[in-house]
Write a structure and sequence with these properties.
With 127 residues, the protein is α+β, with helices and mostly antiparallel strands. The protein has one domain: START domain (Alpha-D-Glucose-1,6-Bisphosphate, Chain A, domain 4), CATH 3.30.530.20. It has a seven-stranded antiparallel sheet. This is START-like domain-containing protein.
């Protein structure tokens, strides 16, 4: 098995950190932009896309700041994290994504995140 490569993306989001956080950590918020449907049982989240289901464990979170998940089937210490960063001076809010992908799938994964975050911005009424 080849090692996955870590990549990071940053998106400016015009929304309060409190509002944005609700879309990153609640099943109802996540199902509006990240997956077709999301269910949770405690720390275990089920993400459903086109009838296929993936499970991830919520491994860490801090209110209005970040959420970190690990896919259940991965045994390679990979995760995906969504962090909210507020610029001290301008007060601009950014969503900082950290994820992992196979070397030949990094560009595709980045494009997928870009599309997902575009949906999130639309839901939030952000440009």
């Amino acid at each position: 098995m080849s090692d996955k490569i870590k990549f990071e993306l940053e998106f400016v989001i015009q929304a309060s950190p409190q509002l944005l956080y609700q879309y990153l950590v609640t099943p109802s918020g996540l199902s509006e932009w990240f997956a077709d449907n999301v269910n949770s049982r405690g720390e275990l989240f089920s993400f459903i896309w086109d009838g296929s289901e993936e499970e991830a464990k919520l491994i860490k979170r801090k209110s209005d700041e970040f959420v970190k998940f690990a896919w259940e089937e991965s045994d390679d210490n990979t995760f995906f994290e969504m962090k909210i960063i507020v610029d001290e001076i301008t007060k601009d809010v950014s969503l900082f994504i950290t994820d992992f992908a196979e070397e030949d799938e990094v560009d595709e994964a980045k494009m997928l995140w870009t599309n997902q975050v575009s949906d999130l911005k639309q839901v939030l009424g952000s440009r």
